Amino acid sequence: MYALSESTGRELWHFETGAAVDSSPAVVDGVIYFGSDDGYFYALDSIQGKLRWKFETGAAIDAAPAIHNDQILIADEAGKLTALSLEQGELQWQIQVTGQLFASPAVFDEQVVIASTSGEIHAIELETGQVIWQRDLGSAIFSSPAIADDMVYAGTMSGQLHNLSLQDGALLSSFDAGWPIVASPFLAEGVLYFNTDDGELFALR
Q1: CB neighbours of 22 closer than 8 A, spacing ≥ 6?
Q2: Rounded to two decimals, what is the model's pTM?
Q3: I want to staple 77 with a disulfide (CB 3.0 to 4.6 A). Which of 7, 36, 60, 83 is the partner?
């Protein structure tokens, strides 16, 4: 992990982990949070790059973390979702799902939604880690779900963009884009945007 001067590009500090860092970092209140392929999740001081705490997940971490209030959520390649305290990195809860987790968790109100390479999507209670519902979409998912208006949008490697109820996971609709969907969908002003592996950009109402 490197920190560079915004004005000059000069290196300010760097921090070495035991393997490659593929996940995007999150920065909150002067602390940088990120995962590494060495199976550890790190919290560093953003000014000096000094380690504040680290937590061993035991598996490579490719997904960016999600932060909700004083909680940070980490998805790893072994299919574990881990909730830690933001301040000390203390374990709050951890669950295991089928498949690998490459997609970042999506947080909405008091729920977190995760999608795995098994094609399963789960909604989980943030406070307890209890599964609220799960749905098998039948094809691997590498992109993070999008959540808006009590609905969950998830794209699959089979090229399907699915719309689920956030309340109970019921499948509301599906759109066949024809090519794998790897990038995460996003919503703006009531329009859902996503692109496919063949380079097409879709906008759905």
Answers
A1: 37, 60, 61, 62
A2: 0.91
A3: 60
